[in-house]
Amino acid sequence: MLLEPECLGCLLNQIYHALILLKPTISKDEIIEAQKKMMEFMTNADVLKKPGPLIGKKAYQIIADTLNEKDPYKTLKMEYNNIAMKYYKKAKENIDNAEDPLFEAIAIAAIGNTIDFGAPHYHKMDLLNDLNNFTPDKFKINDIPEFRKSLENANKNSNKILILLDNAGEIVFDKIFVEILQNLYPTLEIICAVRSKPIINDVTMEDAEYISLTKVAKVIEASATPGIELSIASDEFKSYFFDKEVSIILSKGQGNFESLYGMEIPHKDVYYLLKAKCTLMERIFNAKVGDLIFKKKQP
Q: For residues 228 and 58, what is the distance between their CA atoms, to the nearest angstrom?
């Protein structure tokens, strides 16, 4: 996806909120200087022709430079992973014993994309209650029946699914989702893609190794951008992305969605799982901020 009108102000707000979160004592002058650098980039670079992930990468490069930290979210990401892992065993047991384990596995993946572990209320989070009360009507758009058919066809043909992962913390629930898929569709090969370098609180190989996702599925690195950018993605990622035996791509989160939106991806069933977090998503999905989306990409 190229830049949309809603994105300009959002990028400046992201810089503001990130700096406040990561360094509460930061001065307003430092914030404004960082925002000015972003405005200069958007003014001087031909941003109308630059893919969204590359523009987002620039925003977070400015944040990292302002804080003089290569991975400013490192501590926060570790906290997210540790909190999520406390729920792993019970959540896995609930899903294993559910009447419809696939739906419950999708529910935990969706819940993982909605929880904000950085918020003050995270310690009051009732994950198991949320999971037990998660019903299909929680999705504004629900293409889970189509996804089930795609999985059955892929399993029958011993095909592969490529899952584009999103955030730290959330990756723990993605691991549960992967394990349930393995139980239900034993001939389906599962590949998970992470970022190739730290960017925001997105997952990297370090996170995948820390929560032991690498022990249950093949994990590959894509690009060092907040989304997928094929022009700078690893050769390994591109080989799977274009592999005809990868019959399903599941894209988690808004950044990955924005990367794939409008892209021609032939011979694959592509699904988006995300929470609408801005007015652009409202416009595209005819939804409201906060709505959950499980949408099959149309040709």
A: 14
45-65 burial by CB neighbour count: b if 16+ within 10 A, else e? eebeebbbbbbbbbbbebbbe
- Quote the pTM value: 0.92
Q: Where are the domains of the chain?
A: 5-67, 74-296
Contact status, residue 188 vs residue 160, Cβ threshold 8 Å: yes
pLDDT band at 3; cut points 50, 70, 90:
confident
The candidate with the shortest Cα–Cα distance to 193, out of 150, 146, 256, 243, is: 256
- 166 in Cβ contact with 202 (< 8 Å): yes
CATH architecture of the domain formed by 74-296: 3-Layer(aba) Sandwich (3.40)
Tokens of 254: 């808004």
Residues in the chain: 299
Nearest in space to 88 (alpha carbons), one of 117, 112, 110: 112
